[in-house]
Amino acid sequence: MKLKQLLILTALFVAANVLGSTLNTDKKKQEFFNESFGKFNENDRKFAKVNKHKVYDMQAPVAYSSEGNKLSLERVPRFPENDFFIMFAKDASDQSLLISNINSDGYKNLELTFDFAVGDVTMLLNQLTLKCNGEVVELEAIKAKNRDRFESVSVVIPNGTNTIEFVIEGSASTYFRLDNVRIVGEK
To answer: CA dihedral in degrees (123, 124, 127, 131; nearest 10)?
Structure first.
């Protein structure tokens, strides 16, 4: 009888492990959008307007625009690892970057990550407005740890997001740099 009980317990243990592994709902997130704003080439200028830049990582149908063509992509030697990045200028009014036609079909539990750097660590991250499909997504009121150093931040965004807009309304008290925009989701 003990052998029979041992066999039954062993069979139940094996079945539970097999069943547990097939029912595992932990899906790995996959990156489906990654924009570094392009690598610097010696023939490139050190800046370009968003609407005229040609070296985006994500190609058509993804589109990039800046209302009034105010924003530029810049490259600053002290940030060699970042190549080009988006520059929201100090004292310029109402600046925005719109990234549209992002294909998020079939993905859920989306997470947006981006790198940012500021010229004054008193600027709070939530002075930047993030919109997904036109709806505001709240950003935390955090300060950068260091001036002129890129840091990463992640935020959960709505499923089905196909447009992302980064906006600084009014006049910024310091510059804000944006780089390495990435989106991951479960497939």
So the answer is: 140
CA end-to-end span of the chain: 48
**Cα–Cα distance between 92 and 96 in angstroms, integer?**
11
CA–CA separation, 91 and 67 (whole Å)? 16
Q: Helix or strand or coil: residue 122? A: coil
Task: Please answer whether residues 167 and 131 qualify as being in contact, where contact means their C-beta atoms are separated by less than 8 angstroms.
Answer: yes
Burial 46-66 (b: 16+ CB within 10 A, else e): eebebeebeebebeeebebeb
d(CA 69, CA 170): 16
* Cα–Cα dist 128/172, whole Å: 9
Q: Is 181 helix (H, G, I), strand (E, B) or coil?
A: strand
| Tens digits of residue pLDDT in 56-83 | 899 999 999 998 667 888 877 556 565 7
Return mean pLDDT, the chain.
82
Per-residue burial over 81-108, b = 16 or more CB atoms within 10 Å of its CB, e = otherwise: ebbbbbbbbeebeebbbbbeebebeebe
CA–CA gap between residue 112 and residue 82 (Å, rounded) = 18
Q: What would the pLDDT profile of 97-135 be if each residue is shown by its tens digit?
A: 999 999 999 999 999 999 999 988 888 898 899 999 999
Q: Burial, 120: exposed, middle or buried (Cβ in 10 Å; 0-12, 13-18, 19+)?
A: middle
- Take residue 31 and report the two structure tokens written for it: 């990156």
